[in-house]
Automatic annotation (TrEMBL):
Name the record gives this protein: Beta-phosphoglucomutase
Native organism: Ornithinimicrobium pratense
The EC number(s) this enzyme carries: 5.4.2.6
Family, as annotated: Belongs to the HAD-like hydrolase superfamily. CbbY/CbbZ/Gph/YieH family.
Catalytic activity: beta-D-glucose 1-phosphate = beta-D-glucose 6-phosphate
InterPro entries: B-phosphoglucomutase_hydrolase (IPR010976), Beta-PGM-like (IPR051600), HAD-like_sf (IPR036412), HAD-SF_hydro_IA (IPR006439), HAD_sf (IPR023214), PGP-like_dom2 (IPR023198)
Primary enzyme class: isomerase
Names of the cofactor(s): Mg(2+)
Length: 238
């Protein structure tokens, strides 16, 4: 990657810098499997395909709503302050969050070595960096993994909700991060592992959208608009 031709790299967090996409994935599976089993009517089990198609990369409650809609299940939306045992879209999202935080506390987080290598390289060559995550836990993940001091601009699920910035697959959170860095989107690269995130990058007029294949598959990332696909961020160190 020729970093001389761009001014900034906008990183998704979970699955791009840290292996926490997998933790989200497990937490969603635990919550949705229990939820489907608790219903009176029979439903096909929740699968990884459900995650990739409806939940991956999207803001918490939008992921819940998209999955429920795909199964024809209707629940009241509720409110983000709902308790985890409330039978609402927000309640289910918060129920998953309890599982996510439990796993995080017991297992900790290590940054992908290739991602650290790229961050070190960008610091050397003077390319600005930002984190753009749908997650409301992004600051906690950054703190726990030791990455916080490297990012002055973090656009996460909390900030997006507060500022009413539409989440991925819309491009707005990436565009907002570029603005915060004072960089023209046409001079910024988006780095994403989720289809919804790549779609967001492709819709935002960025210099490039790098898809990171952590299981979604190269073809799916290219179909979503990735201009290049890598399996490790060290491949982007020139
Ligand atoms: O529930 P949270 O922490 O706000 O996160 C929502 C989403 O955040 C993203 O970063 C993950 O890639 C998703 O898969 C996850 O569902």
């Amino acid at each position: 990657m020729d970093w001389d031709t761009v001014d900034a790299a906008l990183f998704d967090l979970d699955g791009v810098l840290t292996p926490t996409a997998e933790v989200h994935m497990r937490a969603w599976e635990v919550m949705f499997s229990r939820f489907l089993q608790s219903l009176d009517e029979e439903h096909d089990p929740y699968t990884d395909e459900d995650y990739f198609a409806h939940v991956d990369g999207r803001p918490r409650y939008e992921g819940v709503a998209a999955f429920l809609e795909s199964r024809g299940i209707e629940l009241p939306h509720g409110d983000p302050s709902d308790a985890p045992d409330d039978q609402t879209v927000c309640g289910l999202g918060n129920r998953k969050n309890d599982v996510f935080l439990e796993i995080l506390a017991s297992e900790g987080i290590e940054v992908y070595p290739g991602s650290l290598k790229l961050l070190d390289h960008l610091r050397e060559v003077g390319t600005s960096v930002a984190v753009v995550s749908s997650s409301r836990n992004a600051h906690q993940v950054l703190r726990t993994s030791g990455l916080s001091p490297r990012f002055s601009v973090v656009v996460d699920g909390m900030l997006a909700a507060q500022e009413q910035i539409p989440g991925k697959p819309r491009p707005d959170t990436f565009v907002y991060a570029a603005e915060q860095l004072g960089v023209d989107p046409a001079r910024a690269v988006v780095i994403e592992d989720a289809v919804s995130g790549v779609q967001a990058g492709a819709a935002g007029g960025f210099a490039a959208v790098v898809g990171v294949d952590r299981g979604v598959g190269e073809q799916a990332l290219i179909a979503a608009g990735a201009t290049r696909v890598v399996t490790d961020l060290a491949e982007l160190v020139r």
